[in-house]
């Protein structure tokens, strides 16, 4: 854990090291990922069987065993206790409501020159959803990926999830059923991303791959981009908590640990204007760690990547937050909305002491698949827009072509493109 103070002369160097940590999560695995993708392209299902045995410690009998059957999904769903199923339902319904509200409308623009112009939205044909499963199972991520895809109208939704040691998580399967996933595959890591992008004899390729994952998954998505579309790069989790001196150190500590427990590579940062809070939180983190089942992961994450930054004021706090462009931004100050208005870059914001980030992970409604590694400077969280694309259209009658065509003819000739010019000119008798 780093302790930084903006008043210290060495602050910039320490802060730059924090920024580098966020930037560097995938670079170190690019070679290994390229090899995995090349193997899946060359060997298809055989590579999936071999890599699954190697990385997930599970040897599927054959390629057919990589696909979860409808019977397995039925049995898993039936095994979920009613109260847990009700919680899954609450989350699914709230996520669906929020994402339905995102659906954009087609536009038609009447044009005074006599053309009609428009833009139409349409869903991709097939989406591949990556659901992480190496260190923990994420039923909530199934809902967060699949519900926007279905709301957008995607007909084929293929989900991949690793099953370490051959363990299928029943709630992951129940969530897949609840969210309308059409295929579930027991594969993970870069090999799953490669299979979705290039296809194998068993798994048909998709058009768009979405979802979070570890550094291998994030790097694989980066490498298959272009062959398929991807959402943002959502890698190891991050949170920046902005808290003033009125906040309870124990609550702040648990909010930091809620990200740290995801992954040793996760990053949790506290920014505060209170020297007392800056002193109290590290001790509160250590005390809370002792009570957590995933203390080993959370402890390593906190010690390697965690930070407490003491700022002079919230002007400084807002500027540093923009430089971090965090995946999650939790604001617990006297006027959280006013401070949020001064910050431009964050994947998702959580305002006030009654809005811990974990609420958004599960049931609030907005998506929890968010841009990490400072990509919130230019990227956004998963939404229906990731599964939609736009087609613009133009309709012209003769009068419209006569009114607008001569300018096009002039520009086409200026570009030396005579066929362009004549395809218009000959229709309107310009010669
Ligand atoms: N941003 C989000 O919305 C969100 C949501 C949930 C989880 N997460 C993040 O997703 C990540 C999940 O990571 P995970 O590891 O638990 O699951 P994962 O499913 O992303 O990765 C597991 C896979 O990684 C591959 N792998 C592991 N070690 C490898 C190696 N040495 N070489 C090649 N491949 C290897 C294996 O194929 C394995 O199946 C965490 O960082 C968590 O913070 C993010
Ligand atoms: N915080 C994660 C996104 O970074 C999402 C998640 C899933 N389950 C719990 N949390
Ligand atoms: Zn989380």
From TrEMBL:
NAD(+) binds at residues 130, 191, 214. Zn(2+) binds at residues 259, 262, 361, 420. Its cofactor is Zn(2+). One of its GO terms (biological process) is L-histidine biosynthetic process. Pathway: Amino-acid biosynthesis; L-histidine biosynthesis; L-histidine from 5-phospho-alpha-D-ribose 1-diphosphate: step 9/9. Substrate binds at residues 237, 259, 262, 328, 361, 415, 420. It is an enzyme of class 1 (oxidoreductase). One of its GO terms (cellular component) is cytosol. Binds 1 zinc ion per subunit. Its EC number is 1.1.1.23. Keywords: Amino-acid biosynthesis, Histidine biosynthesis, Metal-binding, NAD, Oxidoreductase, Zinc. It catalyses: L-histidinol + 2 NAD(+) + H2O = L-histidine + 2 NADH + 3 H(+). It comes from the Bacteria. The active site is at residues 327-328. GO terms for molecular function: histidinol dehydrogenase activity; NAD binding; zinc ion binding. Belongs to the histidinol dehydrogenase family. Catalyzes the sequential NAD-dependent oxidations of L-histidinol to L-histidinaldehyde and then to L-histidine. This is Histidinol dehydrogenase. It comes from Muricoccus nepalensis. The gene is hisD.
């Amino acid at each position: 854990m780093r302790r930084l103070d903006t008043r210290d002369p060495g602050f910039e160097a320490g802060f730059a090291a924090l920024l580098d940590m966020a930037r560097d999560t995938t670079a170190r695995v690019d070679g290994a990922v390229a090899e995995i993708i090349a193997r899946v392209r060359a060997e298809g299902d055989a590579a999936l069987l071999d890599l699954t045995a190697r990385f997930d410690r599970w040897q599927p009998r054959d390629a057919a065993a990589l696909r979860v059957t409808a019977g397995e999904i039925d049995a898993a769903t039936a095994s979920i206790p009613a109260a847990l199923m009700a919680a899954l339902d609450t989350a699914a319904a709230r996520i669906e409501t929020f994402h339905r509200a995102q659906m954009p409308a087609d536009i038609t623009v009447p044009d005074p020159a006599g053309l009609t112009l428009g833009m139409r939205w349409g869903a991709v044909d097939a989406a591949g959803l990556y659901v992480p499963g190496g260190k923990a199972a994420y039923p909530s991520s199934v809902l967060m990926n699949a519900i926007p895809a279905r709301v957008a109208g995607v007909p084929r939704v293929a989900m991949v999830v690793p099953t370490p040691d051959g363990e299928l998580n029943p709630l992951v399967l129940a969530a897949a059923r609840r969210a309308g996933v059409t295929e579930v595959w027991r594969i993970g890591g870069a090999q799953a991303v490669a299979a979705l992008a290039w296809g194998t004899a068993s798994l048909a390729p998709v058009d768009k791959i979405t979802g979070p994952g570890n550094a291998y998954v994030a790097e694989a998505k980066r490498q298959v981009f272009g062959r398929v579309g991807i959402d943002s790069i959502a890698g190891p989790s991050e949170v920046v908590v902005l808290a003033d001196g009125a906040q309870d150190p124990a609550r702040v500590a648990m909010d930091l640990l809620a990200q740290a427990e995801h992954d040793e590579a996760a990053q949790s940062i506290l920014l505060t204007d209170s020297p007392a809070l800056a002193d109290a939180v590290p001790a509160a983190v250590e005390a809370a760690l002792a009570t957590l089942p995933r203390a080993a992961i959370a402890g390593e994450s906190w010690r390697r990547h965690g930070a407490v930054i003491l700022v002079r004021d919230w002007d400084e706090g807002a500027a540093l937050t923009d430089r971090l462009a965090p995946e999650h931004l939790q604001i617990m100050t006297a006027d959280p909305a006013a401070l949020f208005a001064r910050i431009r870059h964050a994947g998702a914001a959580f305002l006030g002491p009654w809005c811990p980030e974990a609420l958004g992970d599960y049931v609030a409604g907005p998506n929890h698949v968010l841009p990490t590694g400072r990509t919130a400077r230019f990227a956004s969280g998963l939404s229906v827009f990731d599964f939609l694309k736009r087609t613009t259209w133009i309709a012209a009658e003769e009068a419209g072509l006569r009114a607008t065509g001569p300018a096009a003819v002039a520009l086409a000739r200026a570009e030396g493109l005579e066929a362009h010019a004549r395809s218009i000119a000959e229709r309107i008798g310009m010669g």
